Every structure is written in structure tokens, then in C-alpha cells.
Fold each of these.
Amino acid sequence: MPISESSLPIARRATWRDEECLELVCGIANAGGGRLILDADVDSRGTVKRRTSRLMKAIPGTIARSLSLTCAVELVLDSGKFCLEVVVPPVDDPLSYHGVFYFFRDGENQILDDQALDRLMQRDTESDVKWDIRPVVQASLDDLNMGLVTRFTGAARDTDITTDRDELTAIEETLRHAGLMTGVGTPTNAGILLLHNRPHQYIPGATVRIGFFGSHGGRPIYEDEIFGSIIEQVHATVELLYEKYLPEDEPAPKGTYRLGTAGGHGRPPRDAVHEAVLNALAHKNYDSGTPVQVSVFTDRLCIDNVGRPPRTWTVAALLGRHTSRPNNPNLVAALRSLGVIDGWGNGISSIRMHCMEAGTPEPIFELRDDETTICFPMDSDSLLAASVTNVDSVSASPVARNALPEVQAAARAHATQQDTSLTLNDEKVLAMIDIDGRLTAPRIAKNLNISESTVRRSFRRLRELGLIDRVGSDKSGFWQVK
């Protein structure tokens, strides 16, 4: 059952009675998690009386012994009245109390008959509860970084917001609407990743590991681990990579290593690496408990994360135009609302374009059963560098190459069949619009250091040869490589 503000149940009772309340907790857990609200004894000065204090200490243990369930108990202000809040997490498998299965729905705790129990046990196969909206019951709004919360919600202040109940309510509503908090006031996994200073305390493996391996594999020569919110991890990872692992081209101090010693292309562009790290963290399968891994060799930089696009996708589908299919949709939507992620399904083309504009090799993508790898090559044998980024001279005929990207090899063969040939500029233009068909003539001209009229001539020539086609209008359409 998807967890949303409307579906998270809330039960209210005057006091805790073991049998009745344990049945309620069982029913709430089976219903997808929620909360049980109890009256609290608090004096006029806000001091908790002895009976309520004993209950706060006793209830978690009673639930754990009876249901093997971990619940948090907190004193909260509900509708202007102090109450005890028992936060009940959802369960993966149906839970019973004394052999009876309960389900809390529409304010009533129901006993499930055999048919209803069968439906409950099939719930996971009938609905897709995304990882990023599961609640983290051990945390609350107070555990989040209020500066990050303020940045996301647009609240007026980033300090002691708990004194302003109206502002607190508005913040919670905004976070719930974004899928960063549940209807019972606990952050979701996405909320912890985005708004907590140390999400790995709640989500195992929510970090980035960087290692330098020299020219061989095996154990890293040196390594680091990056902590913090997902945005902080992205920035800290890129900063450390370019300060320590990808230093500027200068004489290497004795005993240190330099990237790019195998061929002289130097470092990949910072923007491309930033986008690749962001993609890995945003689309990772966090249930794996495995950090995003950045492996630096003398001739390449590889970024691996557990998680991949739909299994029907090939690398060719990933590199082409595709819809946005995030593994963590609420997390990605929140990053997009902050302006951290730009557009839908544009991350891969953005990485490739940054590399092309910088004149560095195009990265190599690999999709395995449960992993995605992007590798930035640093040697002189790059296919894209050989076929696109030769700006020293413009020849009327293509330069000799041992291997070509598939689209350019096919284009050259097609031109040969028609007793003609492509110029180097034609191939450069074709390579760029193969990466992003929305590129305009002015931008291509700027990147290739040629005139707009030259680019438009290549457009016409490639179109006449049947290699590209225009989809949509000149103003809002895009080029499609056939």
C-alpha cells in the first residue's frame, strides 16, 4: 500500500490498555504504518507526570516483546493538547497478535478473514511501494538540518522554528506534499537523504567511496569516504576528486600519482563528473546498502552504483532520447524543485555534451544485472576524441581512423554507397546531434569553432543523404538521427 498522508491511519485512545492497544498497533502496522495517539498527563508548567513518564518508557518494550516491532513513543502537541504519539512502522509481511491478523481501516480495527488475509499477503505484488517514500520512524523533523529544510520549503527562518506552530505546520505540509515526510510526522527515506546531515546513520551505505588504484586493480592505494546530505555528497565528492585525485597538470611530487599518464587527455570536465556523481546518487538502489563507488586509475575514472534503468533498456536506449524513469521518483522530484537536477531524462546527454564541449573523450556506459557504470577514459585511443574533436584543421575529407562510433561508421558507409563522402564538419555535426538532437546551429558552431552557415550546410547535406530528419517545427522540434 503506497504511503501517503491520506492512507496513513491514526487511532486515538484515552489511555494505554495492553490488549486493545497491541491489537491496534498490529492493525496499523498491517495497514502500512501510522500512529496511535494517547492522552498525556502534563501539569500547567508542561512537566510530564509520573504515570505518563512510565508509559513512555514501558510502551516500546511491551510492543517489542509482543509483536517484535520497534515503535517510537514521543510527547507531542496535537490540536493544542499534549499527547503521547506511538509511531508505528509498516511491516513487509502480515503481522499477527496471538495468532489473529488485524487491519486498521476507517477508524476501526478489523479482524481479517481468510480472503482478506490472502489479499494482504499479496499486497507487495499488487502495488509498488517506492523505497524513497518509506518512513524512517527513528527520526523526526527535529533531526533534520533546518537550513536544508528552509531552503527546500522556502520558510522564512532557518533557526528555532518549533516556537512557531503555524510555520511548523506549513513546513510539515510542504514536506509531506513532496514525499519527504509521512502523514505521521516522520521523514521518509528521501527526506533523510536530502535533509539530514548524516543519512548513513539511518540508511546503510548512503555515502560515496573514492579510491585511487594506480594502473592496476586490487586494493586502493589510498581512499576516502564522503558523508552528508545527498547534495553535500555530490559537491564534496567532486571537490575532493579535483583537489586530490585529479590534480592539475603539473609536476607530480615524489611518491604521488597523476591521472592521465597513459595518453595525455588530462582530466574529464568537472561538470560532466558532477552530473555523473549526481545521477549515481539520485538513481541508486539504496536497499543494497552499498555506497556509490568512484574508482580512479591512471588512465580512467569509473563511477559505479547499484541500480540501473529498466531491464529492457540497452546502452543504446540509455544514450538515445528516453523518458525519465527514476528509481527514486520523490527524491528526484525534490532535487529538480531545488534546481539541482535540470530537465527530465537529460542527465546522460548532458554528461556527453560536457565532454564534447571540453574536447575530452566520450564516457563509456555499461549496464549489468543490477549496476550502472560510467567510465571516463583518459587515454589517447578515445573514439569520440578521434572522430569529433580535431579542431586544428578542417579537411575536405575525413581523417583516417581505426575505429568510429557506430553512428558515424554507418553514416560513412551510407555516403560511400551513394558515391559521395562526408566532410569532417559533417561528421562532427552528426556526432553532436546524435548526442542531443535539440542543439541549435549557433551552439554547435560555437562548440566546433566553425560558422553557423557551415553548420546549416551540414544539416542540409545530412538531411539530403537521409541520415537525419527534423521532428517537429524549426522552433520547437529536434533533429533525429536515422
Amino acid sequence: MPSWISRATANHNAQLVTTAVVSGVVVGSVILGLQKAKRMYRVADLKASIPELDEDHHATRLTQFGAASDAFPISKEDEKSMALAARARKGDYDDDLILEQLARNRVFLTDDGLAKLRDAFVIVVGCGGVGSHATAALARSGVSKLRLIDFDQVTLSSLNRHAVATLADVGTPKVHCIRRRLEQITPWTHFECRNELFGEASAPTQLAPMNGQAPTFVIDAIDNIDSKVALLYYCSKNNIPVISSMGAGCKSDPTRIFVGDISTSTDDPLSKSTRRRLRALGVKDGIPVIFSTERPGPGKAQLLPLAEEEFTKGDVGELGVLPDFRVRILPVLGTMPAIFGLAVANHVILEITGYPHDYLPSKARDKMYDGILGALQGAEERLARSMGFESQGLKIPLTQDDVGYLVEEVYHGRSIISGLSTRLVLSRWNKPGEDFIDKRTPGQKNSLLQMKDLVLMTKEEATKHEKEILKGDKRPEDLYDQKVLELVRKKMDEEEKFERFR
């Protein structure tokens, strides 16, 4: 290399070329340096032009949780807690200290049970009054992996029932509020916060494994019927253990709260709608729920109606934050969501650890449904013969589950005529037309019977109804009073609306 340089510089032309190259490099470096310096000066000038946020300035900083820092500043304790939690999740926390904190649970559940709990991955969907208390109880009891899903923020009205929210949390996502507060209690817990609305389309992602671990349990603390049904249906079909909290609104009697199968839940509008929608989807039992059997009465709280002036403004649906979410105020006694949430967490803890427990048995009425289905088959064959059709091989398009749905969810196990609950059968209400049998498939005869055509009666009532209306010349208006006719019409209209969920 030195010999090449000496030869190049010995030639006059080469010297000129080398000088030009070196000069170009130097000039280019100087230009780039000046440009960089100018950019640095401009940035410095821009930063200097931004005024400091003092008491006289109208602007304000936002914390990482979206709250105004001058109104709700992050305290030194919060900062220390966050730093400790970050280290604890990486393993920088003495396991003996954790076991000491969980000592009472440890002696109750045994070492094996506590180990299962500490290894569990639980998803909580809905982080309001019920969900926050359930989450707090699970974290305090040792569950170390929690995924929180909720689209909403903490409001002032949340503070009467939320487990951990304070004034400093108003305006922040509920999932982050819970994480921030519980990190001060169980810093080793891994929280995964999803500030999202749960829905049918997003269920596979939102209920997906965490670091390869499938959910040990899912908690449904949602108060929107569509999201609730979507969650429970997905868990049921994918064999994910789940427990659902039904309505705590307008309830006040803690002695009426039960843990039972969804098929046994009563006296709760949210439970009724959820159960009926799930049964229409083919899920009739197998989901534990928390529900209250307390009934409304004189002087008790009720769902508050919208003010009359709101209806005059136009579509009341526009008042909701999201489509299908209620816009009326639901009265809630602050203690009741807490009891529901703790009952949910208690059940989850017992299930995960294998601690002995029982809940109300489901309604085992399959034999009764089979009997009603057989009686309906016989009634359709008799009706076909009376109208001049060959009844042998006639098929009806209903199943045992369809019968159970009509008996339990539509007619609540009682005759539409007398209200009796024994010796029940399903019967057509109106006499069908001549085309009530489908013969389009060679060698096959199908009844065109639909669920909305049927009502529940006692056997004696059905015999009279068949003789005088289905085979005779009378109409229902000739046989029953206006009260029964109106009740049947209401039930049939109701079932037609629910048909779209099938």
C-alpha cells in the first residue's frame, strides 16, 4: 500500500486527482456537519420555545393511564410499587415472602392446592363492580396470571361498587386501574390488560392462551346480553371452564344469592334472557352462575325509565355509548356486586384447587321431554289421519332440546290455560291448513310444524283442544277467554323474536 501511494503521488496528474478527491471528502464532511449542527440548533430552539408547565399555564401533562397529572398525580408510592412489580415479575422477589403472604390460603387449600392456584391463568371479562372484586380476591389468593378485558373507563359513579378504584383513577381504563392498584398488593402477579370490548368475532383472540398456557378459568362479569351470550357460548363449545355472574342490579338480599347451574337460575331477568338465548343455541346446562332469587316488590328499586323529554329528542338508541347497551339507569346497591364478585372468585378457587364443593343440581327432565315429544308425534299423526292423510312414517321437525326450550323458557313449566305444572303436553294452538305436510321428498312425509305454533297444556286440556279446535269447527276465540288469548298471542310474538337467535 505505501508503494502504491508513492507511485500515485509521483505522477503529476495523479496528484491532482488525489487532491480533488480529498478536498471533496473534506468539503462534504463540513457540509454534513453544518447541516447536523443546524438541525440540533433548530430542535433546541423548538424545545426552548415550549413554555414550562407551571401553575399559570393552561396545558397539563397526561399520565400513562390517561389521567391529568396535575389533578391526579402519580404518587411516589405508586412509582415505587410499579418498579417493585416490574422486578417481582422477573423473579426478583423472595418466594418465602409470597408464601408468607398466602399463608392462610396455604393451610386451608394445602400446598398442592395453592400450587395449582399459583400456576393458574384466569381471564376476567368485565372489570366493573363484580369483575373488580373477583379479580382482587383471585390476586390476593395467589392466582399469578390474570388477563383483564374491559372497554370501559372508571367514572365517579363507579366508586360506589368498584373494588379498588379511587378518585385518582376516574377517567382511566378499568383494566389499568385494577392492575395499578393490585400491583401494590401482589407485585408478582402477571397482569395482561386489554382495553377492548368483548365480542363474538374477537373471542378466539381474547380468550387465546397466554405464553402457551390455555385459560384455566374464565369469569363472565359482563352486563350486556349479546356479549355475555357470545362469551358463554364460545366457552361451552370450546370446553373452557367458565362461571357467569347474573344481575346484581335492583338486588338487596344477600341471603338469596346462589351458585348453581344456569338451568336452575330463577327470578332474574338477565339470567332468563341469557338462558333462553343459550338454549336456542343448543346450550341448556353445564354453566355455573351466580344469581339472586330475590323478587321485586313494593318499595324496592326498579330499572329507572328514561325521562319523557329524552324520547321527544328522537332515537333513544343514540344515547348509548355503544349499540345495544342500555341507556337507562340500573339502581345498584354497592354491596351486592361485591358479594357476587366474591362468590364468583370463591367458586373459581375451589374448582381450580379441587376443594370439595357442590352447587344446585340442574333440572334433570330429559325423560319428561321425551314423553312430551312422543305425545306431540302421536297428536300430529292423529291430526293427519283426521284430515285424510296417511300418517305412517310422518316426521316432525322438533327435538328433545326444542321441547325443553319451549317447556322451560317459553312457558316456564306451566299450562298456558290453567297454570298447572303436572301432566304437561305440547299442542298446536290453531288448526293447520291442508298443506301442513310436506311430500316433496319421495318416500318421506314431514310435518311443517314450527315451534311458534305450539302451546303448553295439561293432557286433559289438550284432549279437549284437539277435539273441538284441531279436529272440530271451533276457533280458540270460541273456547277461551280474552286473558288466555292475549297470553298466547304474547308468547307466540315473543318466540318469533327469539327465533332469530337460533
Amino acid sequence: MEKIPVVQDIPAPEGKLHVRLTEGRFQNVRRLTSWPLLALFFSLVWIESNGEPWLLFSFEQHRILLFGNAISWRDLSLLAGLLIAAAALLFFVAVAWGRVWCGFACPQSIWTWMFIRIENITEGSAHTRARQARQPITSGLASRRLVKHLLWLALALATSVTFVGYFVPIRQIINASAQFQLSADIAAWIGIIALLTYLNAGLVREKICLHACPYARFQSVMFDADTQTISYDQSRGEPRVSRRKGDGSAGDCVDCGICQQVCPTGIDIRNGLQAACIDCGACIDGCDQVMKKLGRPPGLIRFTSESRLQGQPGRVLRPRLTGYALVMVSAFAGVIFGFTDTTELLIEIRRDRTALFRQMDRNTVCNHYQIKVEGYQKQSESVLVTLAEPAEFTLFGPPAIDLSENSANWLPYRICATIPQPVKRTLVFRFINGDSEARKETTFLTHRF
């Protein structure tokens, strides 16, 4: 199957990258994509409906709250299906438009750009930072760097608190922190995630894309000759000649190097498609600005396919893209259907482990059980508990379970019958919740067992 060759053996840039910030249409698109995602991430955790968070993965309550609806832990397969559908969407987008996810929506890229922006505000432009890195540290530079790292840590802490707030109610975290009563395990998770955010976005940065991101390793297998990705037009740009030395035979590329200076991973796109390219479009914006100043048409670096660069017509519909589309649609359809049939009542019954049965008197044998009922619908306030065969067996225990008070609690029940009875009998518990009913089987044993 035809695919785009990806250059793998270009040496990674040495030392710290001082990324030059640029403006342009692709950077505006990146902001229009990343800012709403950031707003959702930092605000969604605070939104509540009827006193419950909109989105909460509660280990304590053994449930997931999704926009006012509760999902049982037994429905976690739906989240797995959602991840499969999202992966299929990612592969579909990659085959069609390259690594636009990495460049415009990946959390690593979004947070890295924010940290770079803070660095640019506190320490100056990329040129200034590169020059200062070669000079002795002065008191003024040390102060600016201290402010930078403090701002980095503040952003990392806000990120970690928000992230943990999707597993523990955010208001609970803030109130406990204000009263210095935050539990050690929650504090540890906040500290770990804050440290990882600080390291990944502030210090490691492009190393994640260069060495740790698995997506970069197999993109050449997914891309084909019709994939729209950032490419340098060699036929137009070569030979590269400085503007001062240019002549009639020179290409449009003046070898200014701005495409590499603005790249967050420090690569030179003119060397061909590389595994570290995240398709963020910064090199396109930087090059277009140079072309505009020189009075030359933009697009020396642009989103295009290998086929179009070679003068061939590009294909929109192709087998690989169609296959990923079918998988994606099927996966999302399956997940949507699964959400229409989630668990309403989670019922668990277990026998008393201390004895198989108990002889209450000469004619009566009883079996003891523990029952736990969890409701996952708003209308499930209480559940009536009965037996399907009350004539032969007598049920002792709470006739109704208040789900708001006893949810996830084991409650004792006893079933008694007069002798003789079969050695082993299958019984059915009935759990009635309004107009709906659930049944759960168990066994009844006698002394003749």
C-alpha cells in the first residue's frame, strides 16, 4: 500500500529550544480550537445539576456522573467503546489531514504553547532568551526566571486541582484545602499531576513529541500519498539562495530559517515529512509572512498532499479512509445504542458465609443473605423487595430500600421455610421501582443438603 516516506534519521536539535512566537491564520485556528477546550476543562468541573457535578468519575460512589445521569461501574465498557470510537476518529483524521490533532488539540501541545507564552512574557522573545542563555546570569535575569517558574507552577497546580476535581468533587477539594484538612492521598495526586504538568510543558516539551509520543512512530503507516499534511514545495523553493545573493535561477526559499525558529519541536520541514512534525502550522504562518514581505505568493510551505506536490490530482475517497470512516461510524453508533440501555438498578446478593442454613426450630429452616442495591436513575428513590413465591417462603428484612441513604450498603435479609423442602431450591427476589421491576435469583438450602 502506498504511503508517504517519513524521515526518521534527522538528528534532534541539541540544547533548549527557544521557540519564536508568530502570528497567522493557522495560529488563529489553533487558538479557536484550544481556547474552548481549555474553557471546558477548567469550567466543566464546577458546573452542577441538582447539587451533583455534571461530570464526575466517583470511585467512592462507584459511579460515573455524566451531565446529570449516573452510570454504573458495570457500564464501563461503554467508556471503552467510546475510546475505541475516538481512536477510529483520530485515525480517520490522520489519514485525511495528518497530525492536526497534535498541532491544534493535543493537551501536550496546548499546555506547551501556554508555557512558552509565559516564558516569552517574563524573559523576552526567543532571540533575547537565546542570547541570555549564553551570558552569565544576572540578578535581573534570575528574578525574571523565578517569576516564570512560579507562574508555571501556578498553572500546573491549577491544572492538577482541576484534573483531580473530575474524580473528587472540586468544591470538596477547595474547602478541605482552605481548612488544611485535605487527605494525604488527594494531596499526593495533586502534587504528582502538578509536577508532571510542570515537567512536560515547561522543561521536557518537544521531547515528548520526539521520543515519548507513540503516534509519531506509526504515522508513516497511516499516511498515504493523498494525506493533506504540512509540506515544503521543493520544486518552487529550490535552490535555496539568500535574498542578497539571489539571481534569476534561485528558488523562492531565501533560507531565512524562520520555519525552524517557530517550530515547537525544532525541526526543519524543508528536509521532508518527519516523525516529530505535529502539523501545528507555525512554519506556514512564518514562511507566508516572509513571502509577503518579499512580494512573492504564499504557500511555499502549506497543507497539501504528496500527489498534489507531484502535479497529480488528489483522491478524496480511498479504501483506507473509507475503512476508518466505517469503523468510526460503527463504533459511535454502538456507543450511542449502549447509552440507551445502561444499568438502572445494580443488585448484588450474597449468602451468609458463616452457615449454609440455620435451624430456627423443629419445623423451620432459614437462610440468611446480604443484599446491596444501587440506583442509577433520578427517579430511583426507593426499591420494594419481595419474593416471587411468598406462599412457600417468608422473607424477613426491610420491605423497601431507600437508595439515597442505603445505596452501596449491604442490608441483612432472612428467608425461612417449613420442613420438608427440597434440598436445594431456586428463589427469585423481586425489586420493584415504580413501573419497572428487576429480578435476581438465589438459592435456598435445607438441612437435608
